[in-house]
Amino acid sequence: MTDLSAEVSALPDRSLLVLDDDAPLRTRLGRALEQRGFEPTLVGSVQEAIAAVKVKAPAYAVLDMRLEDGSGLKVVEAVRDARPDAKIIMLTGYGNIATAVQAVKAGAVDYLSKPADADDVVRALLARGDAPAPPDNPMSADRVRWEHIQRVYELCNHNVSETARRLNMHRRTLQRILAKRAPR
Fold first, then answer.
1. Is residue 96 part of a domain?
2. Confidence band (pLDDT; 50, 70, 90) for 162?
3. Cβ atoms of residues 120 and 134 within 8 Å
4. Which of 54, 61, 71, 174 has the smallest CB count inside 10 Å?
5. Alpha helices of the chain — where are they, by DSSP H?
6. Where 4-aspartylphosphate occurs along the chain (predicted)?
7. Is 133 among the domain residues?
8. CA distance 118 to 28
């Protein structure tokens, strides 16, 4: 942490926008990034984020992809318009290749899956064009599968039959999976 904190302290502008609709996560991440030297502004919606960007365009941004009032991609565009040199990281619990491509095309420099460690976020923000190193503790394949099932279940308004149909699995199998705890 000290090496990263020293690098962050050397930055000319440490302003950082953190957008996530999960308040506890947003607060924890904001606090951790502040301890590492950033000056975070924490917001919980697309509208709040766009308003914050109009007040002061941040040098860095960590944005959630899917929010209750829209997509974090709108905020990527707002930050890019206000400050083309800003480094933007997309953060999401439901990572897939299509949304990663969308985020990068919109102007994000990296795309991290939740739960992302604060040090991973800082490394991604400080990366200088090199491909980032693989994470020390990536999600297991079981966890990725479970996250995907949860997302589809949520998109189907918690309808087990519809979720099973979309995932092409038996309804009872899905019910057993949903009854278990999330894998690590």
1. yes
2. very high
3. no
4. 54
5. 2-9, 23-35, 46-55, 72-82, 97-106, 118-126, 141-155, 160-167, 171-179
6. 64
7. no
8. 9
